[in-house]
Structures are given as C-alpha cells and as structure tokens.
Amino acid sequence: MQLATMVKGMRGRIERLPAGEIRSHFIRIGLVEGAIVSCMEKLPGGTIVLEFSRQEVALSGDLARSIEISQL
Amino acid sequence: MSDPTIQHKPHKHLRTNALPTDPLKTRIVLVGNPNVGKSVVFNYLSGLYVDVSNFPGTTVEVSKASYLHYELFDTPGIYGVSSFNDEERVARDIILNGDIILNIVDAVHLERDLFLTQQLIDMGKRVGLIVNMLDEAKRQKVAIDLERLEEELGIPVVGTIAVKKKGLEGIHELVVRASEGNQSRGLHAELHAMLATVGSQGEAVLLLEGDAIIAERHGVTAADVSRREEIYIDRRNRVNTVLQRVVTDAETGKRIASVFGRWSVNPILGFPILVLILYALYLFVGVFVAQDVVNFTENVIGRNFVEFHIKSWVAQNAATTIAVDILDARGNVTDTGTFRFADGTKADYNLWAAARDYPEGRDAEYTFTYDNPWLVLFFGEFGAVTMTLTYLLFLLMPLVLGFYFALSILEDSGYLPRLATLVDRLLRYIGLNGRAVIPLILGFGCVTMATITTRLLGSQREKTIATTILQLAIPCSAQLGVIAALLATAGITATVIYSGVIFSFLVLVGTVMNHSLPGETSPLLIDLPRMRLPQVDNVVKKTLYKTWFFMKEASPWFFIGALTVGVLQVTGALVWIMDAMEPLVVQWLQLPREAATAFVMGLVRRDFGAAGLYHLGLDPYQTVAALVTITLFVPCVASLMVMLKERGVREGMIIWVGSLVLALTIGGVVSQILI
Questions:
Q1: Rounded CA gap, B321 and B319, in Å?
Q2: Are A24 and B426 an interchain contact pair (Cβ–Cβ within 8 Å)?
Q3: Residue of chain A whose alpha carbon sits nearest to that of B271
Q4: Which CATH superfamily groups domain A3-71?
C-alpha cells in the first residue's frame, strides 16, 4: 500500500522508496527500506506527519504517494 | 559498479569559489544537521564580532568570526555533504576548504546525524564531535556511551547541553584533539586510486558519490548515481552498527513529543493555534512597533529632529523658502507662514528666528524649498538623503527589528516547520509549498524584506510565484495602516468588498501561474524539530544579525529609489506622468484627478500613495476602487530594485509591468461595477 493511505496511529514498514536524489536523502536521514514508521498525524489534503527512530518528519501528499509500505 | 578509471583521463584543477580566507590561519568549520544547536556553539566560540555575508555566487548567508588564532566558519544546516541544493553546495565548499571540522549532532537523533559525521570522516577531514542535547536524550531514556563512540569513530567526542552552556568548555580541547577518524574500509581502497586525480580525499569521496560540480572542476566525469546509493547504504549500515554498540535505550524508538507540538499540526486545533499566534504577532508588530514605536521614531526623531537639523544646516548658505504649516490635533493645516531667505538663513538671522518661533508651541511642519535643484534632489521634500535617512532608520528599521525578533522566536521554538506542514496543502493550490508561508507573512511587514526571504524556497518556479504574489497582492505594514484607516471611514461593506477582491485576486494569480509555469511544485519534506523554549540571547543575536544584513542589503536600493523619484520631480517628469495618467484615473477608475498624484507617490513609499487619498473626499465605493488599485499597483521602488536583483531584470520587469497593467485593469473593473 502507499504511505499516503496511512491513517493516524497506523504503523508500517517501508517497502519501496522513490528513485533519485530524494532516495539518497531518505537514506541519509535513516528512512530506508525496512524502517518502521508510524503515522502521527494526517492533514486534509494528504500532508502526513511520520515518526521513525525518534524523528518527526512531514511529507506532502504527492511524496507520500510515491512510497510503498506494508502495514504492521 | 562504475570503474574509477577517470584518473587516467586529462583533467584540470579549478579553484573553488570559497569565501576569502586568511592563508596563514587555521580554518575551523562548524557543521551539523538543521536544529542541532549549531548557532549556540558558534555564538559561544565567536564572541561579539561576526561577519555575515553571502557566499559568492549564491544567496546563502555564511557567518565568519575569529576564535583564538583560528578562523571560524558557520555553515547552513545540512543532512550530508553533496550538491542537492544551494545550502549543501555552499557547506560543501566551506568544508572542503576547512582544516578542522567541528561536527555537532543531536544526541536524540544520532541515527540521522552520524551519517554526516561518517561522511566527514570518509572525506579524510580532521573531525571533532560535539554530542549536544544530552538532557533531552536523558529525558527520553537514551543512554549514550561517549567513550565507546570515540573509540568506534576514531575521533574525539564531547557531550554538551548547549542551551544551558553545559560542557561547552570541552570544545576548546576538542579543537586541538580533532583527528582523522576510522574510514569505511571498502571506500578507502578506491579513494587511494583516485587521490592522484583530485588531490584531496574529500573531493575524491564526492566524486565517487557522483557530485557533478566537483567533477566539472576537475574536468572529469562523475561516477553514476547507483554508486552513490551503494556508498550511502554502506555508510548507513556502518552508522547503524556503531549505534548498536554505543546506544542503549529503555524504550525503543518512542519519541516524547510536546503536547503543543502535536496540537500545532492537528487538523482541528492547528488553525486556531495559528490564528492566535498571528494575532499575537499583529499586536506586537502591527500595533506596538508599527504604530507606537514608529510614530515616535519617524516623527519625533526622524522628521522633526534629524531631518529638520539637516535641512536647516543646508539652508544656512543656500537660497531657501521655508513654509511653516501649523497643524491641528487631526493633522489639518490651519495656518501657514512663509519665509524667504534669498542668501540663506545665516544672512538674515532675525527672520530665521521668526521662522523658528512661528509655531508658538503649536504642532508644526517645516517645508524647505531650495532654489538650487541639486539641493532639492538631495535634501528637499523627497530628498534622496533626508527621506532615505528617515525612512530607513526610523520607519523601516524598527519594523524589521520587530519582525525578525518575532520570527526568531518562532524559528527557535520549532513552530515554523509545523506551520509549513499545516498550510502546505493550501499553498499547493497556488503553486507553492508550505515553506512559502514565511515570506508571505513577512510581506505584511515589509515586501522588500519578504522578497529577500524568498531565497529559502526550493525552486526558481516557487521563487517567481512567491515574488509575484508579494509584489502584487500583499500590502506592507506601512500601507496597511493607511488602508485600515480609510476602510474604517468607508464602512463594513467596503471592507468586505476590498478584502474579497484582493484575496480572490491573490488566489487567481497563484492558480494561473501554477498552471502556466513549467515544472511542478517541489514536494514538502521537512523535519519537525522538538519544540523548545527560545533562548533570549540567541534570539537577540539572530535578530540583530538579520536586521543588519537586511539594512546592508536594502539601503542602497532605497537611496537609489528616492533619487530616481527626486530626478523625476526636479526635471518636471513627475508632473508629466501625472498629467498623462489623468484620463485613465478620471474616466476609467472614476476618481478625482488628484488621485493620480497618490498613485505616483506610491512609487516612492507605498504608504505615501494610500495617504494621498485621505483628503480627496472619496465615497465608499470610490475608496474601494482606489485602494484595490493602489494595493495591486506597484511595490515601492526599493522592493522593485530588490526584486530586479533577486529575480533578474527580465523577470522583474515582467512582474512589474504586469502588476501595473493588472492593477489598473482590476481597479477599473471594480470601479465600473460598483459605481
């Protein structure tokens, strides 16, 4: 499923990240395939607040649609 | 895997366009992720004197200071050394030129931050590690074995709580002990082969990681992206291995977030919180600074003291006519005395005394008219020297100080990224992402200041859209004051129509640009740092630097702007322009002919434009038409100049001419419908 379909409180494992510079950036901050994320907040319009390894990161909806996760 | 055979090809060595440095001094560079407390450490080491400047060829600000016998550089917050954006490119070049790297990491976010640390080590730099925010780590039950960390990384480590000034004294020793650390093994062999080509291990690493700019500097081809990802994954794994040996946490990965931080991005509570913060901002900047403080500084200090003394000093030996207008409590002229000095005030001391005593304690305004056009140009009513001085120091500076103070508090508290998250979706409709909320809010303070801030936006496309909206539809605080006063007289219907027209126009322009400009809005990906209580000294220092930087950057443009209008006035071109505009104003906008003056004066200062409408006796609908026109009309000359500099002459002129045409069109349409 897409990261964008997560709802508040849901946990998931990252399965696939988009390619390119954004992928390199995700690796730098520790958001790699296999990382466990939870959805802290979901705003109308799809902007999503993620929590993983004590970090809190906000992504816009279009970016969240390009990331595949599996629900835990 | 790509083969690093590039060392056999012919290549060149270009100098990096780094900041001017003293070749005899050792360079220390502070490096860290955003929001790890880098500025506190920089302030601790730098002392009072700091030199803030633009990195050559970019709009990224870089601070430089002296520390003992070293040169100390601050760099923008980055997640790694590469060329993904302007900040990274700047930090990369400063790091490559640095001798000692002080790397600051957040104890709670070691997993994220040590990636950069390991990259710096791989680059062969002498590194010292500052593990900051140990208090927060303790609160979140994260135990870090600093000695073990030192052993694993092979570089010296100190632990600090920078905001409480704890452990900072250890940094002095860290500078001396900084050393080359344990490099990733696989990478190391490859680097040796490459060193012959580029001369520095740092550049060799970046070449392997596919940095196109470094490759170009040496006239070689960079390795491809897949190699970078391999190296990155390797490095990520190494960091995770180190962490397993160094960190023990009671609860795995559970973050303790502050209640306020959570509420501020909540879909239901977030907007009321935003409204409250904006209201507090309005009370502080819009009411306290813009009205109380500026009234005093602009009128009492600026106009009646500084300007008056400069003008009387000039009038000593120059042919001058002085008009003294006596004002009543509402600012209307009740009586005027005119004094003529054919040989300057020095020659006729008694008359000068009479002119000075004329008000007899009543409120008065002095107008100095010099016979010599040069004097008029520099010291007259719109004199480039006198007006610029008052405007810059006594109107704009208090406002900019106030705004940057409020902004620094919001920035240091960690609220701004949450605000960007909250409004991201809304701004996306007009082709911007959440980050653009900062320049848009600043625009209500000073459009010139906000135009400079559009630098923080991710792409040229977003900078263009944000600049256009700022120049067109956002009234600055100087103008807002006058608009509010005029609308108060015109009534509630007029206010609703005015706000509605301006707001829909803003949305319309943004939407049209979003759909017509090539490219897409860059996605928002933003770190939400912990909410923290801002430190007073840090906020004050930041406010002063930012204000100083703005004044340095914008002042010449205000002077040139005033000079331009001065020339138009002295040569008579101003009257000609007003005459030329008359049919448009009277027929199309259905306003009295004097309104043309107001529009042209709006060029000098936006509030002059609006203020010129006060005494025209407009009915409510005429007021709406006039205010719509003047809001959209033109930015002041200074913001126009800054826009031309930031966006380039071609794009700047398109925005400017476009705003002129649109203002007159929309203003006219409103007028034709209403009246």
A1: 7
A2: no
A3: A43
A4: Ferrous iron transport protein A (FeoA) (2.30.30.90)
